[in-house]
Amino acid sequence: MPEKITLTVNHVPCTVEIEGWESLLDVLRDRIGLTGTKQGCDDLSCGACTVVVNGEAVKSCKMSATRAAGADVVTIEGLAQGTTLHPIQEALIEAGAVQCGFCIPGIAMGLYGLFNKNLDAGDQEILDALEGHLCRCTGYESILEGAKLAQKKLKARL
Amino acid sequence: MSLKFVGKNITRPDAIQKATGKARFLADIHLPGMLYAAILRPGYAHARIISIDTTEAETSEGVVKVVTGKGCSDKYRYGDNIRDLVPMADEKVRYMGEPLAAVIAGNPHQAKQALKKIKVEYEPLPVYTQALDALAPGAALIHEDSGSYWHLPGVGPKPGTNIANHYRLRKGDAEKGLRESDVVVEAEFKYPFGSCAALEPHGAIVWFQEDGMIEIWSSSICPFIIREEVARVYERPESDVRVHIPEVGGCFGYKSDITVEQTIAYIAGFVPGHPVKWVASRKEDFTSTLLGHGMIIRMKIGAMSDGRLMALKTTIYHSTGAYSDTGVHVSIAAAHNSTGAYEYPHCDLESILTYTNTPAVGAFRGYGHPEAQFAQERLIDILARKLKMDPFVLREKNYLGPGKVTALGERLHQTNGDLRKCSDIIKKAVFEKPKQEEDSEYYYGRGFAAVMKSPKGAPFSSKSAYVKFNTDGSVVINCGGAEVGQGLRNVVRLVAAETLKIAPERIHVYTEIDTQFSPWEWQTIGSMFTKQGGRAVMRACQKTIEQMKHTASQVLRCDVDLLEYDGEYVYLSSDPSIRVEVTKLVRGYMYENGMVVGEVVQACADARLPRYSGFDENGQGSMGVSYTFGAQAAEIRIEKSTGKITVDHFASSFDVGRVIQPQQIRGQVTGGVMMTIGAALFEEVRFDETGKCVNPYFSKYRFPTIKDAPLRQTVQMVETPGTIGPFGARGIGEHPVIGPPPAILNAIYDATGIEFFEIPVTPDKMKKALDEKAAGGNT
Q1: Domain covering A3-78 in this structure, CATH number
Q2: Tens digit of each residue's pLDDT (9 = 90 or more) over B608-646
Q3: Given the DSSP bridges, would you call strands B183-194 and B292-303 parallel, antiparallel or unpaired?
Q4: Which of B169, B422, B444, B729 has the fewest C-beta atoms under 10 angstroms from its C-beta?
Q5: In chain B, whose CA is at the least distance from the CA of A126?
Q6: Secondary structure tally for chain A: helices H, strands E
Q7: Domain residues for B224?
């Protein structure tokens, strides 16, 4: 039977009807219409669906909709302010990390989660955070460069 | 040539839409009244269908319709090379990923739940997962009626066998060449099945509309082939089929040709009036779209003791899967490109495309080049050792270049690029310093591969562009080329900016492709967009300049050929002060009294490779003399305790003729290199003896992560201008994937003295070989 949950998405409270089988990813894409969060696999292994929930980067396909009740969720649509891009988005673009673009929302949110918690993350921590994000286009060189550039930009903003 | 925009790191026009999550991919499309399909896949890889019982599924919650393929194979058979495909299994199933039945429901969950309620009875048949098994005498036929299938001239099945196509190329007399050679080396190589595994799975939406239109959305790179094939099957004018291509989240080959669209069209045909959407799960993307490779390559090289290559004999056994339409030209390309970057006076090159009970094989970045040149580049190193010759000396003696003749019989020119220069760059980048000595933890090795890429297109493989000037002098450009991440929209914009002499910011490049509006393109394959699409853009731009000059000649009352154009004005070359603004010409020129002369400034143009041909009786033909060359090398370390191979440094150099955007070209190379480091070290789509795919998930199909990336990549381009592409440019999309597997396996030999003839070389295989070597085995 459908049930109702309330959660905050990109600072906006939303109440949605859900079915028991739905994940947070389904709620974001199909109930709320925020299709920037992507699905690339069936087994929690591609990272394309990453969003930030209560300050932590999580795979939204893994979290049941029921568990998302009351959560504070930030998606890729919540990063830019109006037409001003978030430094992470700017950095990924400048580094040439955006090719097909399917993995980019997840990668941007993975980095958003990482740098919100630890802006001084070292190379190893950045690699650990990005290991769960698959990209078939770039060979990762530009993604790593983009991550480091994003960190620099975010530090400069402090 | 001094260029203002081409060659600069100008940001691609689609970056912001993608980085903000606003770019619209297939799965993001929702239409009013949309229904969702889920597809049943058989429990056998080869079996007769005895019965399908859909009764229980039909009453399942939310179900609108349950569909089977009964009787579909006569009317709905399709394919644009060999028409052996069916949208859904009819009397038999030929692989485990084949569509067998479908449920259409109100949401995907309901559709998937109902699938479980369909009951199928089968009569199992023998299963073949490898070409050599399907070719054995007495093997059961996968297609009993293959002789009746329509096919293009020059290709097609051999009735009464599992052979889907047999291609043979003869240049000179290979038997004689081998007989007269001082040294002959031979080996058998294996390039296993792989998945392009784009991050966005394949999918399609098909909508049969009340007014007779069929509207389709697909994550595809061939909207016009889909349009033509769907129109043919459903007996509609092509103009009544409208195909949209939204953003495509990676392709790498397997979204080319027509694949899933006919299945979704067949399903949607049962619920006219409703758009029906299907998006592959990752498992379906592995098992029910196209795979790549699946080749056994037997290769024999004859050479003289001074290192002159004399003869090449290649026999490729290609497992094409259950359907051959998409594999046939891959197989042909693999054979005729198996010479790699070398001139052989005598060639006998054949490929035997064979039906197997596995998913159909199709294009995979490189299209036959990586597989055959994996064998060639490994065997050249082996030959050098047998000749006791420096492998660079052996290669340099035989490199293709100006005056040399390819296997296809085409004579090369300076404008095909400078392979020696690429080779020298890589030699310097990787082999100049002494090799790192083995230590207690690691072996170290270096390996090289030269690379040749021919365009695999078709005689009619044109691309086109439409250029429209706006009243403020800004420009809109529309092409039929599919942007899959490679950055072709930026190529279009930069080539147009350079040709029209206006800033890239004032040129807007198309987003979606829509066959109702987009100019015709065959399909966006074969690393040909920059060269051909770019050329079409240039030609259309030049037409608009001519239109402006023509109008200006009336306004300024002078001959057209006395006028010049600079992006802002058309002016008299002898007196630039006599001029008219571009903005006053774009709708025709209006005089003060309101009368207008001249045409609207907009133009369409196309481009194809010159004199591209089919094959003659020797399997030779013309690729439009449009080759690209390069060189690649790997520096690796092998962990002694585990057999784990790490690529410390990978270097690539290609003669691309002209770099259009340096950052994008580097991205193409680093991404391509990573892709086949994956192929060399971990990736393989595996089947058990029943034909079941055992690893159709990212967690089981080892896909390179950021931690597998080489610590360092050297990417250096050579720019010897070509004659066809814009500003001399050639393609680069597929080239970087060719060299890594042979370079890495050559490096493994350099490090350990162990020869591998197949990929992937996983840590287990490496460790086993190291242990055997220590015990006195494999050397």
Answers
A1: 3.10.20.30
A2: 988 888 899 999 999 887 899 999 999 999 999 999 999
A3: antiparallel
A4: B444
A5: B706
A6: 5, 5
A7: 31-125+198-251+255-287
